[in-house]
Amino acid sequence: MSSNELSLRYDLLNSQMNPHFINNAIQSICNSITKGNVNQSINWLNRLSRLYGLVQKSTKCKMIDLLDEIEISRLYIELQKDLFDKGFKYTIKIDEALKDDLQYTKVPPLIFQPLIENAILHGLKGKKRTGKGELTISITLEKEMLYVCITDNGDGITKTKSELNESSGISLENINERLKIINGNQCEKKLLHVRTLRNDTGMALGTRSCLRVPLIQI
After folding, report:
1. Is the dihedral of CA 62, 170, 8, 15 positive or negative?
2. Among 42, 88, 95, 188, which residue's beta carbon has the most beta carbons within 10 A?
3. 3-217, which class in CATH?
């Protein structure tokens, strides 16, 4: 495939993210309005305005600042957190070596969001009314790569790969394809890995989805 064809393919994959992402956020707000949560709905609309601006900006670009990608993730998590009856805890951990360079580090737009969505809507689904759900996003440096892991403390992977793709609206293949393109199809390591975490007795402790993104700093 030529570089021009790869570029067009990449643009197409990016464009698929925008309507799905915004549609889900609007649906969440509609649900809140129908329940009569006026103040919460206004708060969400303000967040959505900020989120929409970032998403619109990001999906017009092949790469965006890691700082913006983290802010998109944070706003999305906050919106979803309010949908849980008692919320859930979340942490975003950033490698100390990256903290001063977030605005100079580039990543594909909305590369984290589908995995965060799966973690919240599927992984933490069983903890929606308990307030005991936990979500962790860690971003570290590993041999010229960004290593990004999204971990939840839910029931592990209960869907097949094809069901996960269908339920998330944006397939895991979309993420993998975009990572392959920016790697030039030359990386031997698996770029996207999703697995169930288990204790010594085999009990599921949650799900971890990890991405390897080339370290690009400008």
Report:
1. negative
2. 88
3. alpha beta
